[in-house]
Amino acid sequence: MILIADSGSTKTSWCFFSRENHSEKISTSGINPFFRTTEDITTELQKNLVPKIKTTINEIYFYGAGIINEGKGNVVKRALQELFPFAKIDVQSDLLAAARATLGKEKGIACILGTGSNSCLYNGNKIVEHAPPLGFILGDEGSGAVLGRKLVSDYFKKLMPENIAQKFQEQFPINYADFMESVYKKEKPNKFLSRFVPFIKENISDEYCEQLVKQSFEEFLQRNVFNYSNFRKQKISFVGSVAFYFHTLLESVISKNGLQLGSIEKEPIKGLIHFHKKQK
C-alpha cells in the first residue's frame, strides 16, 4: 500500500491506496516544518492518522509547504519513520507536487496560487529552474495573501471605490490598530490577509475587484513565469484555491500574454495519485 500526503500550513490531505485501487482521504492539520517539530508531528499523527490505517504501508510520498531543503524535509521524515519504520519514505516540496500532479512526465511550468504563490520549470522528472517566491512581503505575487494585502491597503488609504469600501466595512468592522497588530505582531499574517479573498470573489463582477485580481496575475507572470527558459513554448499549469476560484480571469490573462495554458486544479492530490499509480 502507498500513502500520499499533500500538506499546507493549515491542512494535510492523506490518501492510501494500492496500484489498483485507492481508499478514502484522511485529513489532519497542516504540517509545515517552519512551524512544527518532529515530536509535535509524531504526536498528532499517532493520534489522528495511524489508527485510521488498517493495513501495512510500504511507500510514503509526502509533499509539503516549507520543504525547502533536506533539513526541513528531515523534520517530517523522522516523524514518519518513527510511525512507519518499514516504509520507504520520500519527502518533497509542494512545488514538485504541483509539477507531478499537473504535468506528470511532461515538461512545462508548474505554478501554485493559493495562500502563497510559487513556480518552477519542470523537465518531466525534476525542477530545473526556480524563481524564489520570497513570501508575501517581498513576493508571492498573485497569492491570496497579496490579494488581501492590496485590498486592505486600498481600504485604509481610501483608494477603494466607495461602494466596495462600504461593503468591506460592513463585512469586516476592523480598525487600523487591529489590522496592524494582526499583520505585524500576530502569527501567520499571510493567513490573516488571505481571509479577505472570499470578499474579492463575492464582488468579482465589480471592475475594481476584477482589475485587482487581473493585475496580480499579471505581476505573477512578469515577475516569475517570464524568468524561465523558453517560457512562451512551455505549457503552464496551476494548482491552488486562488487559481481555481479565479480561473476565468487567470485564463484571460494567460491568453492575453500569448502563453500556453495547461490545467488548473484546486488541489494536487488527485493528480499525485495518478502519477504514482503509473510509476510501476
Name its key features.
Transcription Termination Factor Rho, Rna-binding Domain, Chain A, Domain 1, 5-stranded mixed beta sheet, Nucleotidyltransferase, domain 5, alpha/beta, 21% strand, single chain, 280 residues
Structure description:
Among the domains are: 2-99 and 269-277, Nucleotidyltransferase, domain 5 (2-Layer Sandwich); 137-213, Orthogonal Bundle (Transcription Termination Factor Rho, Rna-binding Domain, Chain A, Domain 1), CATH 1.10.720.160. The two termini are 13 Å apart. The model has no long low-confidence stretch (mean pLDDT 90). The chain has helices at 38-48, 70-83, 94-103, 135-138, 144-156, 162-171, 176-184, 189-194, 197-202, 207-223, 241-245, 247-256, 269-277; strands at residues 2-7, 11-17, 22-29, 59-64, 88-93, 108-113, 117-122, 127-129, 235-239, 260-265. With 280 residues, the chain is an alpha/beta fold. The protein is built from 13 helices and 10 strands. It is globular. The strands form 2 sheets. Strands 3-2-1-4-5 form a 5-stranded mixed β-sheet, with helices on both faces.
